[in-house]
């Protein structure tokens, strides 16, 4: 990566419960996002993806670790110091209708970040709103409509316009299409890609769907139980996944490539509880190729190739060993 926009180092987020108990939502993760690039963050429900996105925007306070945005550590900033940064960091939410205030028109919705951040003089706002609506494919006739008068696709376009109106450098896209039907999903993903190239914005694209992540992302990070278990440029991770969990995610979408397929039965059961995590391989309880020594510690991120890391002690032999335990 040539020009780093965001650098996350050793990020931890614990949600404390009663007494000393806590949910280990993020257990020490590190990654970077380059300017204008998309990092796909993929994993099952409960793996910690949304919490990562919310930490980047400081919508939740990290427990420890560093988040550098354009060089400065945003975990150290006060609320007041953070305010000017708000226009450069935005989020698009999963459910477009739920994320829009039903009593606000499209114009009022898209205007909100401008007003909150006193971004540009107020007399310029209408022109800016009309322009961004045009970029997301909505004409001026939409300005005075309410969310209920819009289709799901139009609602998400409004959500995207609201996120992009202040020309942010990073937008967290949290499952932006998971509530949409397949044709609308394609439309919105295509729109997000074209906006990225015209506005040179970076995305953290959060999804449980590895195929959507593959289409959208320059690089991919795979999350499991609050850990990143593998990360790499998209082509590398899709061609040569080294963590058994990455392989399992690929098999769950029934990859057309037989070399990637794994019987679903290989990874059985649910993601375990995130309460009071132990220092061991997070995937141990479901791993088809586990060893006793996987219980000794969280495996380090092994260097598989250029920018390709896998946190598995057996990364050199994953494919061979999986083929032995589950011949097709
Ligand atoms: N406010 C909170 N209090 C306690 N636990 C929380 C809180 N928010 C999230 N968690 C827990 O943190 C873990 C990670 O949740 P998170 O929502 O980040 O996962 P996710 O991968 O985004 O899942 P999903 O796809 O379902 O949104 C889960 O175990 C979740 O129950």
Keywords for this structure?
12 strands; 8-stranded mixed sheet; binds adenosine-5'-triphosphate; alpha/beta; globular; P-loop_NTPase; 23% strand; 4-stranded antiparallel sheet; Oligopep_ABC_C; 328 residues
Descriptive overview:
With 328 residues, the chain is an alpha/beta fold. The protein has a domain at 233-328. It contains 11 helices and 12 strands. Strands 6-7-8-3-9-10-12-11 form an 8-stranded mixed beta sheet, with helices on both faces. Strands 2-1-4-5 form a 4-stranded antiparallel beta sheet, with helices on one face. Helix 4 (106-116) runs parallel beside helix 6 (152-164). The radius of gyration is 21 Å and the shape is globular. The mean pLDDT is 91. Bound molecules: adenosine-5'-triphosphate.
Strand pairing plus helix content: what structural class? alpha/beta
Mean pLDDT: 91
Count of helix runs: 11
Distance separating the two termini: 38 Å
Lateral strand order in the biggest sheet: 6-7-8-3-9-10-12-11
Hetero groups in this structure are: adenosine-5'-triphosphate
Mind summarizing the main beta sheet? 8 strands, mixed
Question: How many E strands?
Answer: 12
Q: Give the topology string: H per helix, E per strand.
A: EEEHEEHEHHHHEHEHEEHHEEH
Radius of gyration: 21 Å
């Amino acid at each position: 990566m040539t020009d780093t926009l965001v650098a996350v180092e050793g990020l931890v987020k614990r949600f404390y419960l009663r007494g000393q108990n806590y949910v280990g939502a993020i257990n020490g993760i590190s990654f970077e996002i380059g300017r204008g690039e998309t990092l796909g963050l993929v994993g099952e429900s409960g793996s910690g993806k949304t919490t990562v996105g919310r930490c980047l925007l400081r919508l939740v306070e990290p427990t420890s670790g560093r988040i550098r945005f354009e060089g400065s550590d945003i975990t150290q900033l006060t609320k007041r110091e953070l305010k000017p940064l708000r226009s450069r960091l935005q989020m698009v939410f999963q459910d477009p209708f739920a994320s829009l205030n039903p009593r606000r028109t499209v114009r009022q919705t898209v205007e909100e970040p401008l007003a909150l951040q006193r971004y540009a003089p107020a007399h310029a706002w209408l022109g800016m709103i009309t322009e961004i609506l045009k970029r997301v494919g909505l004409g001026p006739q939409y300005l005075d409509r309410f969310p209920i008068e819009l289709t799901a696709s139009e609602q998400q376009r409004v959500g995207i316009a609201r996120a992009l109106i202040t020309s942010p450098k990073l937008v967290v896209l949290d499952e932006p299409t998971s509530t949409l039907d397949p044709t609308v999903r394609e439309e919105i993903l295509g729109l997000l890609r074209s906006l990225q190239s015209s506005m040179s914005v970076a995305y953290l694209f959060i999804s449980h769907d590895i195929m959507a992540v593959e289409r959208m992302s320059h690089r991919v990070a795979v999350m499991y139980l609050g850990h990143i278990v593998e990360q790499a440029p998209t082509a590398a991770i899709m061609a040569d996944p080294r963590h058994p969990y990455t392989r399992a995610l690929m098999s769950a979408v029934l990859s057309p490539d037989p070399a990637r397929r794994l019987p679903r039965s290989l990874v059985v059961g649910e993601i375990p509880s995130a309460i009071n995590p132990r220092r061991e391989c997070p995937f141990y309880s479901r791993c088809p190729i586990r060893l006793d020594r996987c219980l000794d510690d969280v495996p380090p991120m092994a260097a598989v190739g250029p920018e390709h890391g896998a946190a598995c002690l057996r990364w050199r032999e994953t494919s061979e060993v999986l083929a032995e335990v589950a011949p097709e």
